[in-house]
Amino acid sequence: MAVAPIVLELPPLPAVEALLLLIALLLARVVWLLADGVAILRKAGSAPLETKAARARGGSVSESSRIVREARSVERTLRSSAKMFELCYLGDADMDVDKFMEACRWYGDKVLTQMGSFTLVTVREIHANMDKVKHTHQLDPQKHRSMHALLETECASDMHQPGGILLDQSAAMGLLWARRGLMFWVCLFRRHLDQAASGPATPTGSQTPSSHATVIAAYEESLAPFNGWVTRNTFMLATRAFPEWREIEATLASTPEEAKTDMSEWVHVVEPLLDRMDATLRKLDLNDTRKCL
Question: Which residues form the signal peptide (predicted)?
C-alpha cells in the first residue's frame, strides 16, 4: 500500500518578509554611505591640475597655488550666502520657507562645492532635505511660506507620532536635519575664528592636529549626538579629505582677512535663524532625537 505524501501548507509570514526587506534596505544604505566615503577619498587623492603643472615645471605647489589665487578674482560666496539667509527672517519668530530652501541649495552648490571633495555627502544631503520640505510646501505655497504654518499643517495631518517621532519623508524631518547640518558649519567657523584670533598653530598656517581637532569638535557639538555608527564613520572618512584652512579661505574670498570677516558675518546671521527653527520644532513636539543609521 502506497504511503500518501505529507504536504505541509505553511501560512504566509508577512512579519518575516517585512523584516528581511528592512534588513535589505539597511544594508543598501550602508553600502551607499561607504561608497560615498570611498568616492571622497578618491577625489582627495587626485592632485589638482595646478598642482600637477607646478610639479611638472619643477616649481613648488604652494607657490603655484598662490599665483593662481592672486591672478583670479574670487567671488565672496559666503558673504552672499549670509545675505540670502538674512532674507529668511519672517516676523518676530517665524521663517520664510521659500527663501530658506533657496538659501540652503545655494549654500551647498556655490559655497560648499568650492571647498573640496569632503563636502560631497553634505551637499547631497542638503538637496535631499530641501526636497522633503518641498513636498509639503508645494501643497499650498502661499500658506506654507511660513515655517510655523507648514509644520502645523503636518501636525494636523497626524503624520508624526507623539514624542517627536517624525515621518522620514516630511518637511519637519527635512528642516530638522537642515538645521543640524547648518549648525555644524556655525560651530566649525566659530571655532576656526577663535583659533585664528589666538594666533596661527604654525608659522605657515598649515593644517595641524589641533586644526583637524576643530573639525571633530564641531561635529561632536552639532551632529554626533544624532549619528549612528555608519554615518559617523562616513563622516570620519570625509574628514581625511579636509584641506588646510588657507585653501578653504581661498575659495571664499580674495584674502584670508576677507574670508574670516565673511565667516563671522555668516555665523552672526545664521545662528539666530537656527535658534528660531529649534524653538519651533520643540514647541510643536517635532524635535526627533533618534539616531540615524
Answer: none
State the CB neighbour count (10 A cutoff) for residue 142.
8
pTM summary value: 0.76
In this structure, the dihedral spanned by the alpha carbons of residues 263, 264, 270 and 272, taken in order and rounded to 10 degrees, is 160
Average predicted confidence (pLDDT) for the chain = 81
pLDDT tens digits for 30-40? Answer: 444 555 554 54
